[in-house]
Amino acid sequence: MNVIAFDTCFRACSVAVLWHEPGPTPDAPREHLVSRYEEMATGQAERLMPMIDEVLRESGRKLQDLDAIAVTEGPGTFTGVRVGVAAARGLALATGLPIRATTSLHVMAHRALAEVGRAFPEGLLAVSVDARGGQVFVQFFEATDGTPLTQAAIMEPKEAAAMFPERPLLCVGSGGQMVVEAALQSGRVVEADLPNLQPDARYLTRLAPQLPERKPLIPLYLRPPDAKPQIGKSLPRA
Question: How many domains does the chain have?
Fold first, then answer.
């Protein structure tokens, strides 16, 4: 599949284009990947479209040359999730390309499996991100191949620490240590690694062929917004 993928959910902005050209045999096409990855707490809205332009120019591809748009649907910061979802919707509307989507935590799981540097054959991988307010975004995966075992959810660390108690657990992401500490209180030993892990669109390009098409694409926030209107404080309408 020839695909453009991007993520803006947490503290990074990344874009990747993956495409194939004829190889020496029909079943061995040449694969090409161009990507950009920048860590940032804010500013994804300003950087995403320029990064998309950069990777398209470097790849020599046009959006119309591709088969799909892949994007992380959440969870993440409210602004970050909105930026990625809105960009995917706009590009799909302009080009007619289908949108394929998965969670930011799914992409992080596959990056973790590539970077953790050790086998964990009998265990599970939990991607856990600090969601503030004493909660974590969390999703569980097989540590052998990154197959999702649960949907993405928001919960207290002690709830995450109690899941799949019969199997060894490795937690990655900024909320990993929170789960480790909660597990210790119940006597369970859980490992943590890669506390600064972020999604990377390079891994999303690899996942794209197996992802469902999203019609419509709906952002996955998992919690209500922190900012709420004050009762009796609304501005008068003209």
Answer: 2
